[in-house]
Amino acid sequence: MSETTGTVPRQEAAITVLGGPTAVIDLGGLRIVSDPTFDEPGPQGYLTKTAGPALDEDALGPVDLVLVSHEAHPDNLDERGRAFAKAAPLVLTGPVAAGRLGPAAVGLPPWTGHSVPRADGGGELTVLAVPAVHGPEDGERDADGNVNCEVTGFVLTGQGLPTVYVSGDNASIRTVAEISRRVPDVDVAVLHAGAARVPAKFDGRPLSLDGRAAAAAAAVLGADTVIPAHYDGWAHFSEGLAEIELAFHEAGLSSLLCTAPHGTWVRLPS
Ligand SMILES: [Zn+2]
Hints:
It contains six helices and 16 strands. With 270 residues, it is α/β, with parallel strands linked by helices. The protein has a single domain, classed as Ribonuclease Z/Hydroxyacylglutathione hydrolase-like (Metallo-beta-lactamase, Chain A, 4-Layer Sandwich). Helix 4 (173-182) runs parallel beside helix 5 and helix 5 (211-221) packs across helix 6 (241-250). The site of zinc ion has 5 residues, from loops.
């Protein structure tokens, strides 16, 4: 199911999580990086990073596309991650974040798509922006009407490719259900599943999925492959891989969960 990256050659269809939210998605001949974070451990404002990435920027080589779920929080886009995104040929994110990220960024409102030519001769890869709710549904809304802040999830589709959903920081099963209704054939789900909590926000309630909610999300989506992300590397997670694995076990869904050491590929079903 997985192999060591070595020099990080491009894979036919595989994903590796580097730590925190950062995932490398090789699909359709393209190298895509979601929520790039490459800083060393240390304090980042009100958050504390406890581990650096399994691979640094240079090990990835040129990338084709960066997905930024939100730019407002340093655990999803730190300083080196921001520089990495700004150097990429294309960044897809939400409209508010795009305004802050500069010319390479295209802001996609929920349910709008952006297609890019594939490098494997297979036509196009389409990225659909999908909603995400970064806290409890009844949480206080910001000036743009978002709980916590604007967050964008992404669904990647292409002829002959597995359909990949990247959740971003989302705590809402209702939102996952809406995505499942509109995109009924998700094969692979990259779920931010560390149940992030910050005492000052929403009475400390989760800002992202916990293990049980991730298992529920996997069931609702009908995904065959679930790759957890954003459950370690920062001090504000209330669940880690052990809790996620237990939750999938208790739900009888352990067979869906595909984990590998950070920096190690998980091959995707074709
Ligand atoms: Zn966040």
